[in-house]
Amino acid sequence: MSVSVSTIRPPQSPARRALSAFLAHKLAMFGLLVVLVFVAGAVFAPYLAGADPIATSWSAIRKAPSAAHWFGTDENGRDVFARVLFGARASLAAGVIAVGGALLIGVPFGLIAGLAGGWVDAVISRVADAMLAVPFLILAIALAAFLGPALENAMLAIAISASPIFTRLARGMVQDAASQDYVEAARAMGNPPWRTAILHILPNIAPSLLVQATLSIAEAIIAEASLSFLGLGQQPPAPSWGSMLNSAQRFIENAPWLAIFPGGAIFILVLALNLVGDGLRDAMDPRAAKR
Amino acid sequence: MARWLLRRLGQILPTLLILSFGIFALQQLMPGDPALILAGEDRGDPQVLAQIRAELMLDRPLLEQYFHWLGRVLVGDFGFSWRIREPVSALILSKLPVTAQLASMSFLIALVIGIPAGVLSAVWKDKPADWGINAVALFGISTPNFWLGIMMIMFFSVHLGWLPPSGYVPLWEDPVQSLATTIMPAFVLGTGVASVLMRHTRAAMLTALSQDYVRTARAKGLMERVVVARHALRNALIPVVTLGTIEFGRLLAGAVLTEQIFSIPGFGKLVVDAVFNRDYPVVQGVVLVTALIFVTLSLIADILAMLVNPRLRAA
Description:
The structure holds two protein chains of two kinds.
Chain A: H1 14-23, H2 26-43, H3 45-48, H4 80-116, H5 118-133, H6 136-147, H7 151-178, H8 181-188, H9 193-229, H10 241-248, H11 257-284, H12 286-290
Chain B: H1 2-29, H2 34-39, H3 46-55, H4 62-74, H5 88-123, H6 128-142, H7 145-159, H8 175-209, H9 212-219, H10 224-262, H11 267-276, H12 280-308, H13 310-314
């Protein structure tokens, strides 16, 4: 896990140092490779699947994995490999869009709270506390339940549920940054607060946000699978790993492949994202890397 | 200490107030008219609809509805389940012991695995054992609870036939059977939390082991075992206690899907069934109670941290 930075080379900029530390992080690179394989699989699913993920076939119901159907077929005779590939689209889209939404909601509030202080900070912080008091998944389930079952609503519910983490993170870092020289300088030069926040503080806190975002994507993917498992996400017949696992439960005794492959896909993708997130954190924080 | 406690409560009360409003306002997101859902067969009868609206105060302004709702919530009245016409508070009280048993067992498993693993991996830092423990923890964090549950049912119930795949027997009815029905779900929930606890413990131990008092203890010639257990671990456990309490709240959330998989009639199953039946008062009640438990636990954690660490008390 540890990365040693050569001391002979001339001093690098922090960003370059972080990048080279990240690139040298073997586990993180492996994770990144796996994530890219999933992305490629999702993007090129129509060409790679070799079967229609929705087409049912009464002559091929719950067939075990074979040369014709690599991951077997499900209770409606659909090709599980094709469904896992197309399911990657729902999972990856949910992960990226939900976390993107969480950043868009959470970070501005964190910046405002950290810069404004006073009652503005108090109100924003209490709202974030209130949201964080409800466990992430329960909040997402409650929101999705009231919004109605659909993949878009699940993404929105996850985005809202994940946003207070970013608010709290951004607020804390802005408060740290506010006393730093570069912020003092920017302010002394007559920059209005919003300009200081966006042009000077945001780029400096971006690395930490990136680390949290990567780890949050992993959590969002599990959350999307959980909501779809409960029937609150992707609606049938469109494939999603969570809903595939839900129907697999009924055939656990004679068709285990129905549960093994979609669940394995979630596990591998989440594991890979966690490796990338841990690697990024080690790379950005020299102290963590030395530990 | 008293002033700190007051300040802390001064933060918690507005938080809970905002939360209660948020949970109440969720209703407004809801597609469709609740009166129509409740009326069922009689949805065509405007008189029935008007009566239901008046009963639920749906015809009043939003803020008035909220304060009326809040007033009742404060005395423990969460309204009636739309589905089975039972008080939500009674439903929650009847399900809570089931989830409490499951959560306690999981937490015990998490503590027994997570803390020793964290200590060992800190002591053996950068040795193969450390890598191994870290890898297992990473697997634990990355495995979706519900998938692990399905896999365990597949292996232990279907393949080996050792444990019942689902169902629940209360502890006081048949303790052995009760443990047999809850050990798999408790393990599923516990391993995830164990992984997080292990990481916290490892980080806290590494910090503690690099402190001066540990060097002093070693210099005194104490056995490494004593140094680790009596000097480093006792200090490292302070942040772990705080974080562990918060993880306990997370267990309640994890229980939602795990109870679903193992058909355990607890808190989590209650909320999922309520979501499916569009039984919104139950959903609101469960979310509110979960948040209350979580806030109480983090307050307890803060107080515990204060009590064990005199330096915090002075601040």
